[in-house]
Amino acid sequence: MSINSIDHDEMTGIANKWDFMDEVEAPKANKGVKSAEARRRIEQLKEIRDSGLTLEEARELGLIH
Q: Is the pTM higher than 0.70?
């Protein structure tokens, strides 16, 4: 494929649809979700420890995976 065979109108259309903020905000949102999941998991493990169960017992009961 040579540079002359590129459809410049198509490339311009794609460039006009691209939004920089979509690229910037997506990782931040994903990071927040991961942080929330990590906090929930830590709280769950603390509750299991406080209940006196071992991790193996908690797995057997289906409390953790």
A: no
